[in-house]
Amino acid sequence: MKFYKRAAKIIGILAIGLMIAGCGAEDPAMPELSFEESLQQQLIQARPGDVIEIPAGTHEMTRSLSLTVPGVTIRGAGMDRSILSFKNQIQGAEGLLVSADDFVIEDLAIEDTVGDALKVNESDNVTIRRVRAEWTGGALTTNGAYGIYPVQCNKVLIDDVLVIGASDAGIYVGQSSQIIVRNSRVEYNVAGIEIENSTFADVHDNIATNNTGGILIFDLPNLPVQGGRNTRVFDNQIFANNTANFAPEGNIVATVPTGTGLMILANDNIEVFGNDFIDNDSVNVLIVSYLITALPIDDPDYDPFPESIFIHNNQFSGGGETPDSEPLALLQSATAQSIPDVVWDGILVDGKQAKDILCLAENGEVTFVNLDASNGFAAPSFDTDAHRCSLPRLSVISLSPAAQ
């Protein structure tokens, strides 16, 4: 009897031991998750306050990533060390799509996405810093449209990023408010930096070079948010933006002349100061109404005219030597001179004077032309007297202390 009791006890102990060992063993029917699967799982299961780490290395992604949980930080080991490569992407329209407030992403790279690299949609308190978005095959029409792409957001900080190769805009902030874009470099994009249909933006201490257009400040019709205004563009280096326009046909940026430094289209209350404009082959600064595009306007709420543009205390050197625009090329042919530093299309709002559209002050030996587009470019004027004026300085954009 004792023998059987002792045997039963031994068998029970062995059974428990096997159960414990089994709990710690890998189930061969459950393969280990790939890095891509693990990362998407972390994004889905994240909770507010989580930090998702992207280790050093090149990580192959085949599908879009997404995040909808607020208060999450995605952090890599550096924009040249932690790389999410979408070169073999087979599914999804973006690299990473975020629809969540209080979002931070930093110290990583997103490469070769089919569509946009990083899109942030309808979010408050967005911080994007030390992020690289790049299409490594060069300036191709087949590249994704946008590198860094917050849209319909509020309180956006973009700091110390690098974007290369976007077929629309490297850094694009659209239909948003309270924006800072600073300390960043944009190269070989169609538009380096674009602020579109947005309000209250500071764009400063950036380098825009080798794009088709360095910096664009646009307001367009038929968008849910309109009335772009109150943008300051200051202390930037905007030089040699002479890459041929490679935007897909039909995009509004496909109309941007190759060799444009800064272009302001139908936007109001813009202050431009402390910038260096150098060797932009078409024009250093271009200010135009939407009417210049000759595109139809079927939006009754849209204002197609720029107003209250204040350009002061900038430095200009070179530029305007090979204009990529029929009106500018005809002007150069007629004058045998380079295109002036600042070009205004000359289309006036009813009841407004030239000084209501554009003021120029303390820009050294700046040159200027009013193209007289309202009269078919019949009588361009190089007289700056009507624009010798000043406008009230715009306010500094201040975000939350955490974002700063």
Please give a structural write-up.
This protein has a single domain, classed as Pectate Lyase C-like. It has 404 residues and is mainly beta. It is elongated. The chain has helices spanning 2-24, 35-45, 326-335, 354-357; strands at residues 51-54, 57-60, 63-67, 73-76, 82-85, 91-98, 103-111, 116-121, 124-134, 146-151, 154-159, 162-164, 169-174, 177-182, 185-187, 191-196, 199-204, 207-209, 213-218, 229-234, 237-239, 260-265, 268-273, 276-278, 283-288, 307-312, 315-317, 342-344, 358-361, 368-370.
End-to-end distance: 79 Å
What is the C-alpha radius of gyration, as a whole number of Å? 27 Å
- What is the annotated CATH architecture? 3 Solenoid
Low-pLDDT ranges? 1-26
Oligomer: single chain
Reading off the top of the CATH hierarchy, the class is best stated as Mainly Beta
Structural class: mainly beta
Mean pLDDT: 92
Number of DSSP strand runs? 30
Structural shape: elongated
When the domains are counted, the total is: 1
Strand content: 35-45%
Which fold name corresponds to the CATH topology? Answer: Pectate Lyase C-like
Main sheet attributes: strand count, strand direction, barrel closure: 19 strands, parallel
Q: How much helicity do the residues have?
A: 10-25%
Number of helices: 4
Structural key phrases:
single chain; 404 residues; mainly beta; Pectate Lyase C-like; 19-stranded parallel β-sheet; 11-stranded parallel β-sheet
How do the strands and helices of this protein lay out in sequence?
Layout: H1 2-24, H2 35-45, E1 51-54, E2 57-60, E3 63-67, E4 73-76, E5 82-85, E6 91-98, E7 103-111, E8 116-121, E9 124-134, E10 146-151, E11 154-159, E12 162-164, E13 169-174, E14 177-182, E15 185-187, E16 191-196, E17 199-204, E18 207-209, E19 213-218, E20 229-234, E21 237-239, E22 260-265, E23 268-273, E24 276-278, E25 283-288, E26 307-312, E27 315-317, H3 326-335, E28 342-344, H4 354-357, E29 358-361, E30 368-370
Parallel strand pairs: 1-4, 2-5, 3-6, 4-7, 5-7, 6-8, 7-9, 8-10, 9-11, 9-12, 10-13, 11-14, 12-15, 13-16, 14-17, 15-18, 16-19, 17-20, 18-21, 19-22, 20-23, 21-24, 22-25, 23-26, 24-27, 25-28, 26-29, 28-30
